[in-house]
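Input (structure):
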């Protein structure tokens, strides 16, 4: 397979893991791929900005990014971290509501962008894609309800552990350990919906149980836990 063929296959694989497109036929997926635009961003670039309307969704082909929201006092709150293969901004394809959060690159990144205009045209042509959109909207509603249930019934320690499991990635070099990005206690508190002091106590408990360790501002989940 030549270089162009490898790139095309990589792009289609990136699309297949996106829930919005997971049930789309191979032909429709390939047509979708022809409308993607490659965009390159330097480190610390704002790709989408909270409160502004947008008409593009993005897939991270390479690089890393963070999802942030502004608190009432203007402080930046990190809500999530995104790695290669992740996607964001997909709700912009379905309406012109303002962005609910900002996304900023953590390193030089290559993104694939799809415009709402091209997406709507594809919807008109593909019943499978239209059905996939309906199913994904239903999934989003279920996820929102589950998140609300989690905040209501799960303890802070459990929410903190779930957060670490979600954002930790394998350490380079094949050690088998899982490492989180660099995090402060306040950032963790923002992501699990509690105070910094409560998170500090929860992290101490997780360390005392042997489930968690720390190296600098990164947390380590050992594989033999």
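Output (sequence):
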């Amino acid at each position: 397979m030549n270089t162009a063929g490898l790139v095309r296959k990589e792009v289609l694989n990136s699309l297949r893991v996106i829930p919005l497109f997971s049930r789309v036929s191979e032909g429709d997926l390939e047509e979708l791929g022809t409308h993607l635009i490659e965009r390159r961003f330097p480190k610390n670039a704002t790709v989408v900005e909270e409160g502004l309307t947008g008409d593009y969704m993005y897939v991270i082909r390479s690089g890393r990014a963070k999802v942030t929201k502004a608190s009432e006092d203007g402080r930046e709150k990190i809500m999530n971290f995104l790695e290669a293969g992740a996607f964001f901004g997909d709700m912009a394809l379905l309406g012109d509501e303002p962005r609910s959060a900002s996304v900023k690159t953590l390193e030089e990144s290559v993104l694939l962008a799809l415009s709402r205009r091209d997406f709507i045209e594809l919807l008109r042509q593909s019943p499978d894609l239209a059905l996939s959109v309906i199913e994904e909207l239903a999934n989003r509603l279920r996820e929102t309800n589950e998140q609300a249930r989690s905040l209501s019934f799960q303890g802070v320690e459990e929410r903190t552990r779930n957060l670490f499991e979600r954002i930790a990635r394998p350490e380079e070099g094949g050690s088998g350990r899982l490492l989180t990005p660099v995090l402060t206690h306040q950032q963790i508190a923002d992501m699990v919906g509690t105070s910094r002091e409560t998170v500090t106590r929860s992290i101490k408990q997780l360390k005392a149980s042997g489930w968690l360790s720390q190296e600098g501002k990164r947390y380590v989940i050992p594989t033999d836990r």
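Notes: The domain at 156-221 is CATH 1.10.10.10 (Arc Repressor Mutant, subunit A). The chain is about 40% helix and 25% strand.
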